[in-house]
Design goal:
alpha/beta; 9-stranded mixed beta sheet; glycogen biosynthesis; 8 helices; 8-stranded mixed beta sheet; 29% strand; 379 residues; Glucose-1-phosphate adenylyltransferase; GlgC_bac
């Protein structure tokens, strides 16, 4: 595969993910475990690796410790290299003091020195909290063919859901004519995926001008893109038809994990041509006893299963004791379900123990429960 040395990736990974409640109390949303053995950020990182992007900057902010520990020097994604590689870009102090990034555009602006050092022709801007697989080479080729200044991947969403997204309206050639941020009466159902390719000289100019605007929110969707459109720049959409999910709520997180159990799921974790890489623990194989009953379940290393498990995702080191029942649930690392306990339609957080005989959730409704050490939050 040809190396994309002329395109640098900037991965925004500082989000708090407040709608995930206790799940992001001690870690950034991109570091949240997903799919039995991964973390959410692994998907954007693996897409970059598989697309042979040489340089990638990861912009962190909220609760970065576990995220930084997971990423390390990038060896799991082959980014521990002599030429190019991965850089963690955190907020820093200046002569006027230290501050948080003030928006998505400001986060990139504050790291223009990093981009200038690389001197790319194109900059790919990604979010670290989406679940999807995408070949960024195809996106870049499209960007070049259209002679675009900016290209934005979009997905077709249901019309009844369109008002929840940033909607783009285009002409017949997919050139953008208008942005609508969560419109009450959308004119199209093409929703922005929060992914952008910019020509770097234009991006740099736009960020410098935006930084000088005291009335700006310093956000790509609210400020940068509408301004470029008003200036008559060539902004195009690229239609994506694969699996994509913003796991921004407990229900969407639960659904996305259980989607992996569908053999027809477009995400396909078993695709040898587009692997999802992660930092792995050295754990023993999982164990299933004679007393256990297991069906349609993802089971990671180090699990011990002696009870009943159906349609669920078990992360590493999970223990399901004899006579315990787990159905339609996501059990995060090292959680324990004691004998006689029953868990339905739930997300059990890391190292939480469900005591003997306790019942969480119900088979009679599909409300999702988030279970931490301190409380159970019902949807």
């Amino acid at each position: 595969m040809k190396s994309n040395n002329n395109m640098c990736c900037m991965l925004l990974a500082g989000g708090q993910g407040s709608r995930l409640k206790n799940m992001t109390k001690e870690l950034a949303k991109p570091a949240v475990p997903f799919g039995g053995k991964y973390r959410i950020i692994d998907f954007a990182l693996s897409n970059s690796t598989n697309s042979d992007i040489r340089d990638i900057g990861i912009l962190t902010q909220y609760k970065p410790f576990k995220l930084n520990e997971h990423i390390g020097i990038g060896s799991a994604w082959d980014y521990n290299r002599n030429i190019g590689g991965l850089r963690i870009l955190s907020p820093y102090s200046t002569e006027s003091g230290g501050r948080w990034y003030e928006g998505t555009a400001n986060a990139i602006f504050e790291n223009l020195d990093y981009l200038d050092m690389i001197s790319p022709d194109y900059v790919l801007i990604l979010s670290g909290d989406h679940i999807y697989k995408m070949n960024y080479n195809i996106l870049l080729d499209y960007h070049k063919r259209k002679a675009a200044d900016v290209t934005i991947p979009v997905m077709t969403v249901l019309w009844e859901d369109a008002s929840r997204f940033g909607i783009v309206n285009t002409d017949e050639d997919f050139k953008i004519e208008e942005f609508e941020e969560k419109p009450k009466n959308p004119k199209s159902n093409l929703a922005s995926m929060g992914i952008y390719i910019f020509n770097y000289p234009l991006l740099k100019k736009a960020l410098i001008e935006d930084n000088e605007d005291v009335n700006s929110d310093h956000d790509f969707g609210k400020n940068i893109l509408p301004k470029l459109l008003k200036e008559g720049r060539n902004l195009y959409v690229w239609k994506f038809d694969g699996y994509w999910k913003d796991v921004g709520t407990i229900r969407s997180y639960w659904e996305a994990n259980l989607d992996l159990l569908d053999p027809n799921n477009k995400l396909d974790l078993y695709d040898e041509d587009w692997k999802i890489y992660t930092k792995s623990e050295n754990l023993p194989p999982h164990y299933i006893s004679d007393d256990a009953s297991v069906s349609k379940t993802l089971i990671n290393e180090g699990c011990e299963i002696c009870g009943t498990v159906e349609n669920s995702v078990l992360f590493s080191g999970v223990k399901i004791e004899k006579d315990a029942v787990v159905k339609n649930s996501v059990i995060l690392p090292y959680a324990e379900i004691a004998s006689g306990a029953k868990v339905y339609n739930s997300v059990i957080l890391e190292k939480v123990k469900i005591c003997e005989g306790k019942i969480v959730g119900s088979e009679d409704n599909n409300k999702v429960n988030l279970v931490s050490e301190d409380e159970i939050i019902e949807e």
